[in-house]
Each structure stands twice: as C-alpha cells, then as structure tokens.
Write the structure tokens for this entry.
Amino acid sequence: MLHTDELERWLAVARTACPGILVQPDALLRRIRVMLGSREPPALRGEDLVLAAACLEGDPAAMAHLDRLIRSVSRRALARVGIAADLDEVCQQVRSKLLLGQRGPPKLGEYSGHGPLSRWLQTVVLRQALNERRHEARAEGAATRCLAADLQPLADPEIDFLRRRYREDFDGAFAGALAGLSDRERSLLRLHLIDGLSYSQLAVPYQVERSTICRWLRTTREKLVEQTRARLAERLALSDSELDSLMRLLCNEIDVSIGGLLRSTKG
C-alpha cells in the first residue's frame, strides 16, 4: 500500500522536472492508488506516476509538461520507424486519448509506473499514428475484407476440396486461437502483417533487439497453429494423420488468415 511519506519523495523528484505542480498530496495519493490497484510501489517510476496523476487531476503545469513530452516523444518515434504523419495532428490525438479518453476512460490512467513514462508514451504515439494511417487508407477506398474474401482459389483440387469442406471449421478454430493470444501478441501481428512494420521497426517501441521480435512472431505463429489444430480436433472426427494432413494443406494460408481476421477487428 502506497503511503504518504513515499508519495512525498516521489512528489519532490517530480517537482524538479515540473516545478509548478500544485495538486494537493491527498488528491495525488488517491489518484495514484487507483492507477496502481494492487501493485506494490517499490521499483516504480514514482515521479512519472505523480506527473500522470497530476495531469489527470487537471494541473496546468503538469499538463503543459506532458504536452512537451508528447511532442518530443512523437517526433523521435515517428522519425525512427519512418512513419510519415502530421506531427501536430498526432500530438493532438494522443493528448485527447490520454486526458479525455476515446470511447472509454482517459488512457493516461492505465500508466502503472513500470518503466519510464516516455517509453510508455512512445507505444501510444505509434499506435495512434498507425491507426490514423489505416483510417486514411479506408477513406481512400481501401476496403476492409473478411477472411473468406482474402483467400484466393487454389489450383490443386485436393486443397480446394478440403478448403470447401472444412473452411467453416477451420475459420472458427483459427478465430478462437487468435482470440486466445495476448494483447502483445495480437498487437505485434497487426503491426507486422497489417501495417507492414519490419522487425527492426518493431524493435523500437518494444525496446528489444530485432532478433527478439523475430522470435516473438515465430513463437506466436507456432502457437496459433497448435491452438488451431487442438480446436479442430475438438470439432472434427478425424484421425491424427488426417488432421495433420489438413493442417499442412491449410496452414500455408495462415498469414493471409491472420491478416483477414485482424483487419476485420478494431485495431
């Protein structure tokens, strides 16, 4: 449980970066306790939590500091991954999401103090920029298609027969497997397959090496295949060898299937 003396130390550090914070400690304490939930305070970025809490309490100095941080983070993040976007528009959208919320509570309330606020903001900025790019593409006529429309006819009659016969079962099993992934796994797939970010570009917001991104994506794909197979086994009365054959024939389409389902859901 976070105590007043701990908050006082955090507030003292926060005021070195943002001297004008005027929110009373009691209000900050209540806000931070909500943000932390059951998390323990040690090893957290206390000064960043204070800044975030002060912004959510409407402190003018804290919000001005946050605006400068958003702009700085946005400029660096967009340049490093090569996303062409209107900086002012991205900053405005991010600020609105953080402090006002979009179809929900303010996003800044989700910051938990694990890691620097600037790094957390970097991920928010990149997601916002990519969302804007997807919306622009839709406005220009890039239609969002479902899984069935994405799959192209195959010349092999055996594959075509199996696809027609088991497509509904495969779609259901695959959609269930995709829904069972973690938020990070789905986000990585969306950024890589839908938005076209390379391993090197993805390494930036996640603060890891390129090889780690490659391993995460490979492991996620393997997990999808395994879970799809397990769900198909529950649906179909097939022997292990028949099921293996079906998976071999259909899983060459798995990246297309991932793309179709991710495009048919909100990002």
